[in-house]
């Protein structure tokens, strides 16, 4: 209730500078900040428990056992469903409340065998990974001359040479956000100018001959052509060859298939709120992964620090006023199918969603807490983060990130996520190297402490965050 | 002649502190240093030509065309012989003197198809590379339980459990020099305690699920078992599984074969000396590579800056007093077969070998010039390096490195090599990622300038280096 007054007061004070409302706003803020301060000793308990106590390395160890046991978990696979069953068992064993799953229909893309071989000017099998949703090739493959381009503009400039060619994109890596368009749209743009397949330089700042997979988007009005990512190394080599006037010919074989959608599940567990159980602070990560690597970083880490937040609160015998709900999304990699279904079913209760958090950028050493919310809420979050600053400097940043929480944030719910070293993250992203080797127990402890302190403090404040 | 006096003088002065000899030594040194100073303008010409003139990026571009054309060049392969033929043609086209090859017998190991698949606790095909000289497995492979060890000591401690097992080494990476023993000796040590195969964590500080190959050494008195490198990621995972008491079973299949030795060739070209043509400054790298990647870094870079040194001297119309000889060794990777043959045939002229240089640690930005020689020679080399310091700080370091020049250095010939960032080098070493992508044209220009200034100045001094 008070939070709405705070919101109105903040808005009016900001817009009109009214002195009475301003005073009232300060009074409310000061009362809220005192409320947060009263949680400081709980926050310290959480931090000590996560970093030095019985929960030390627990999220890492649980994740190691999970990923070692199941490996990769692509949407549509039985392996993902087995992994979900395993999580339900573990969450129940952990004594959490209301452990259950919620159904969601998900795509079912299957890779099959695949290869890309340069057959001219010399025989050179290339490391590659077909892209999610790509069609396959005929069994004999697609064999064609190569046209290398460095951008969509370059493709347009060379459009007259593209017909019947395999289009190789050798775009520079700028950032994942900017460069991923080549993976997502490379096939459709190639097809528009008559390309018969596309091979895209992997979207990464660094390679040890490492192909990266990921989802791609056909346009229903454009011919669908098979598409895969190759390494930086081979994309650069083919460009050099083309610049020398060398004719390049490649055979691409892909058994990839888009099968009918299947049912999967979001996995849910809670710490039930004592006073406002219908109000929710949501912590999340996605349990599905690509079908390469083991989904330890993307997004096992995010999923397991979310579990760990609930686990630590239960271990410490804390009970927040409102419910902390963990959701492990399904089929994030294909475009957030699990979270979209969840939003559809739960948006009617949107007023009760206090804060939605997702960790899906890696659980490396946190470089900041990304927060989407108004300035009054930012003031509160700044205070919430105070206890963790003794462990690691964690500035409050703008703009929470997470495909699975975007709809909630767009609808006005405050959102949170963890900023990490993205240059490191995208070296391993969607590759066979997404394993426990990139995870560090201490870094996961600190992410866990941050995640738990934020979730618990916000869930136990008297008021919901202003929005 | 004077250099012998210098040597005697230096030795006596050092041992006995005689004032007369000390004075004589200083006089000689000062005359030698003046000789070097007189080469400063030639050195500057070389540097300008290599960095900003017509030779800018030439070594990089030549190497790119070479590696793009031939790819990998393992000893014993027709591809290496074709690459040697190509080099002979190019060296002749470049107008160099005495272009020829010298025969050397080399091992002929062939990889064939290979795989390592974890079949229990779950199906997990592992990235792997068989090790050079390894025997193959029977066609159905070797299937056995796994014993993970972290060191040779740990293997001894667990020896009673090793019989019939596939031994997995999950040793920590300390440095290449220290850690490579597991790759070299892992199979024989495993066999001694009854292991049926060995899988060794790749010798690298960093992995993107990257297996590294390399040579390994059987002991003729110990059963030979198949051996390969796996990734850091899988070695670590198997150790975690073992610590949890999980039984691991792996099927290893390798078609590897040790075929009869074949003839290969060292490739030689020269700038003939004007005054002491029988005296030689030798610059070198090895032309062979592993059968993965494209041998751009190991050791295309070293080979091509050595060619470039001669090329630049010819382009500038310089003619040193003694001969600068480039040798591109064959079969370095198998243990220096080309260079051993060369030493055997040329050691009778060892007194005429003034300085032997090899670049085989990467042609990244030089961090120093490694030099093996006595203190009088070091004083000279310090002076020789002066002109290059304006471009890049290049301290004179101790202990030249290079498998192909070791015998000469051990026999007392001064030796030189380039120190580079070894943490970077060993990320790519003996992998599919050894391609032009790790090479940088500017860094190669600077390596070339350094290599050429040293070779030319030493070759054109009146005296040979003291030894």
UniProtKB/TrEMBL annotation, chains A, B:
Q: Name one GO biological process term.
A: proteolysis
Query: Hey, which family's this protein in?
Result: Belongs to the peptidase M28 family.
Q: Where is the signal peptide?
A: 1-17
Q: Gene3D superfamilies attached here?
A: 3.50.30.30, Zn peptidases
**In which organism is this protein found?**
Magallana gigas
Q: Which GO terms describe its cellular component?
A: endoplasmic reticulum; extracellular space; Golgi apparatus; lysosome
Q: What is its main location?
A: endoplasmic reticulum
Q: What is this protein called?
A: Carboxypeptidase Q
Q: Which UniProt keywords apply?
A: Carboxypeptidase, Endoplasmic reticulum, Glycoprotein, Golgi apparatus, Hydrolase, Lysosome, Metal-binding, Metalloprotease, Protease, Secreted, Signal, Zinc, Zymogen
Superkingdom in the source lineage: Eukaryota
- Domain Peptidase M28, residue spans: 266-451
């Amino acid at each position: 209730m008070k939070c709405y007054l705070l919101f109105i007061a903040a808005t009016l004070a900001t817009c009109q500078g009214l002195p009475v409302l301003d005073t009232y706003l300060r009074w409310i803020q000061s009362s809220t900040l005192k409320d947060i301060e009263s949680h400081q000793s709980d926050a310290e308990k959480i931090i000590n428990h996560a970093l030095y106590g019985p929960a030390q390395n627990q999220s890492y160890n649980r994740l190691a056992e999970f990923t070692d046991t199941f490996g990769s978990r692509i949407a549509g696979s039985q392996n993902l469903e087995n992994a979900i069953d395993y999580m339900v068992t573990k969450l129940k064993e952990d004594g959490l409340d209301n452990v259950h799953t919620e159904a969601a229909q998900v795509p079912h893309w299957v890779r099959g065998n695949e290869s890309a071989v340069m057959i001219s000017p010399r025989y050179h099998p290339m490391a590659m990974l077909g892209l999610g949703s790509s069609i396959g090739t005929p069994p004999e493959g697609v064999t064609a001359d190569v046209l290398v381009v460095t951008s969509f503009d370059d493709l347009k400039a060379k459009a007259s040479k593209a017909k019947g060619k395999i289009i190789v994109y050798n775009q520079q890596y700028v950032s994942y956000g900017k460069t991923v368009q080549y993976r997502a749209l490379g096939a459709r743009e190639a097809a528009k100018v008559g390309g018969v397949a596309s091979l895209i330089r992997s979207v990464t700042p660094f390679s040890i001959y490492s192909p990266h997979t990921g989802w791609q988007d056909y346009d229903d009005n454009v011919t669908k052509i098979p598409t895969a990512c190759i390494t930086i190394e081979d994309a650069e080599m083919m460009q050099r060859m083309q610049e020398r006037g060398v004719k390049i010919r490649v055979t691409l074989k892909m058994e990839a298939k888009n099968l009918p959608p299947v049912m999967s599940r979001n996995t849910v567990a809670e710490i039930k709120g004592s006073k406002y159980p219908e109000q929710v602070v949501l912590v999340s990560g996605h349990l599905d992964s690509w079908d390469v690597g083991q989904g330890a970083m993307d997004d096992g880490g995010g999923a397991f620090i979310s579990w760990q937040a609930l686990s630590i609160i239960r271990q410490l015998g804390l009970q927040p006023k409102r419910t902390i709900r963990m959701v492990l999304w399904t089929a994030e990699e294909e475009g957030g199918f699990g979270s979209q279904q969840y939003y559809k079913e739960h948006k009617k209760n949107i007023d009760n969603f206090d804060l939605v958090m997702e960790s899906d950028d890696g659980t490396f050493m946190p470089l900041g807490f990304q927060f989407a919310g108004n300035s009054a809420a930012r003031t509160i979050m700044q205070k919430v983060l105070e206890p963790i600053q003794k462990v690691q400097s964690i500035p409050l940043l703008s703009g929470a990130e997470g495909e699975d929480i975007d709809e909630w944030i767009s609808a006005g719910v405050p959102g949170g996520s963890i900023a990490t070293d993205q240059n490191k993250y995208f070296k391993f992203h969607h590759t066979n190297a997404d394993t426990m080797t990139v995870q560090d127990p201490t870094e996961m402890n600190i992410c866990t402490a941050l995640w738990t302190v934020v979730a618990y403090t916000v869930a136990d404040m008297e008021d919901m965050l202003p929005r």
